[in-house]
Amino acid sequence: MAAQNPMHGSFNEAFPNVPRPVSKQVLTVAGISIAVYGLNELTFDAREVACLWLLHPRLQTQACMEPLAAAAIHDWNGREESKKLGLLAITFDQRNHGSREVDPVANEAWRSGNKRHAQDMFSIYHGTASDTSLLMTYLSSYIFPSSDRAIVMNLVLGVSLGGHAAWQCLVHDARISAAIIVIGCPDYFSLMSDRARLSKLASWVDSPAPGTHFLGSRDFPAGLVTAVEMHDPAAMLLGKVDGPIRQIDDEPPSPVEQAKLLPLMKRLFQGKRILNLSGSTDKLVPYKCGEGFIRWLRAAAAPGGWFADRVHVEDILFENVGHQMSQEMVVEAIRFIAQTLQNQPFTRVDKSSRI
Q1: Is the pTM of this model over 0.85?
Q2: Rounded to whole angstroms, how far apart are CA atoms 114 and 94?
Q3: Containing H/E element for 77?
Q4: Rounded to the nearest 5°, which phi and psi values hold at 215?
Q5: What average pLDDT is seen over the chain?
Q6: Which stretches of 150-276 are DSSP H helices?
Q7: Other C-beta atoms lying within 10 Å of the C-beta of residue 150
Q8: Are the C-beta atoms of 187 and 297 separated by less than 8 Å?
Q9: Is the pLDDT of residue 346 over 50?
């Protein structure tokens, strides 16, 4: 099924700085075809390099992220700091997309005839997060075989399906310093419960109370529930949902609960930066599905919060924007990338992935 590309319209003649192309090198790393942008633009003195991993939307391919790669690199290379710290951008096709497509139906939703939509979508973007970590491990040996430069920092930016994956990359790989999530969701239980309600699945409507038997049903099997509890940020910290949307108490966790959560919070978020960009009229990935978790995380990280000064969280909701990366979102993303490169201590890449 054809779907509108969320990247359509991110750059056009009205954009203040339509990005010029940058150098592109296509490599096969760990059996995955990747594109590396910006190698030729690195200055001689830039012996340390940051990598921006760009994860594309569902039903699209890595090619749609190329203008964003160019925009980020041009912006950074126009700054004085780029003479010492270089920036590369990396793209690759998500699992079952583009050059890696095996079954087109597996990329579709319930309404488009895919009965395994919940399993397929989560496993595909969990796989993308795993692939990102795998590629991160081996990339320097391919692009810097003489070890004359070192990758010292990794950032991830994902859109839609790529945004879901970016959340997993952030929390499961200690090498990632920052994530820009565009129209993505950190709460799979809420997202798919709401989608099941809207799709009027029998497992939703035929429950004694609507939705009470959805988790654990054929549409969301127990094995998938277990996987989500292991890898989804909201599920790891807050558990399952009781209805279509997670309801969060505005009261902070009790001291006992904080003591239990603190080690996990440190492992997932300590020292990291997050920019969450959403559209107020997004019907495919509604902001409300992740809002409870985002609000909970922001409250914990706020001055005086129980996790204050340990994680930086920005959450911007754009009015009258649907399921797309608007030009205003591009501007915010480029701004956040530059600020992260300028201000954030490097998260050295000798730390291992937990995916």
Answers
A1: yes
A2: 18
A3: helix 66-77
A4: -70, 120
A5: 91
A6: 161-172, 188-199, 202-205, 222-231, 233-238, 255-269
A7: 14
A8: no
A9: no
